[in-house]
Hints:
It is a single chain. The chain is of the alpha/beta class. The protein has a single domain, classed as Carbon-nitrogen hydrolase (Nitrilase/N-carbamoyl-D-aminoacid amidohydrolase, 4-Layer Sandwich), CATH 3.60.110. Helix content is 31%, strand content 28%. It has helices spanning 19-35, 57-60, 67-79, 122-125, 153-161, 178-192, 241-249, 252-255, 258-267; strands spanning 4-11, 38-42, 82-90, 97-105, 108-114, 134-137, 140-144, 166-170, 195-199, 204-205, 208-209, 215-217, 223-226, 232-239.
Amino acid sequence: MLTKYQVAVVQMVCKLSDKQANVEKALHYIEKAVSREAKLVVFPEMFSTGYSVGEMDLLLAESLDGETIQKLLKAARDRRIYIVGGMIEKGERDGTVYNTAFILGPEGIIGKHRKTHLWNMEKHRFLKGEDYTVFQTDIGKIGLQICYEIGFPEGARILSLKGAELILSPSAFGFSHLYAWKIACKSRALENGIYLIASNRTGIERDVMFAGHSRVVSPKGSILANAFDKDEILIAEVNLEQVHEQRKELPYLQDLEKIKVLHHMTDSLSYQY
């Protein structure tokens, strides 16, 4: 298993509803990432379709055996890399869709995460996911979260307690809440002793301006690489030994009183606001 390697984070403008153009752009970025020896490439939320396509969700949705994933899977196999990104996924029932993040590798489709905390009008577009899964790979134990979920410490904590060493966050985070993005990325990394790798959208779609500021954050909460507001590819080094070193230095996970936490979380379910 690799413990030290390069990761690539792609920040990009997407063409609304144009899967072919967006996937071709993604494949171009994959080649750039490979040329810089990256073993992991992370794309934004719903990068293949664009984000603001609400009335076309059902038309644009694909399953994980659809054309988009197959093109990316070929790149993952041919280049011996891991690819993470977001898509509109067809649900098992007719007329249902999910906001989904996927992870692909040289060995095939590794898994997916369906967004559990839906932002604003997403509640009317998508069904909620329910699971927090950690994926064992040759580049470490990986958890997935999508955009708005980064503001919920519980999800990252669950993934970390399940062994995650990296949390990857495909996002379409808005510019008006950039302040929250900057704090949450660093907080989730530091409080769990993990690498937080967040790929965000840039540009404007209809009435949404995206924040950009994709970033790689170390287990100490320091920013290893940061984008601004343009199309960009970030390259940073991950060293999984630093995860274990930081968890010894600040043993939040070890000292967490899990029973009390679960008790208080259960009690708080009745909270009204």
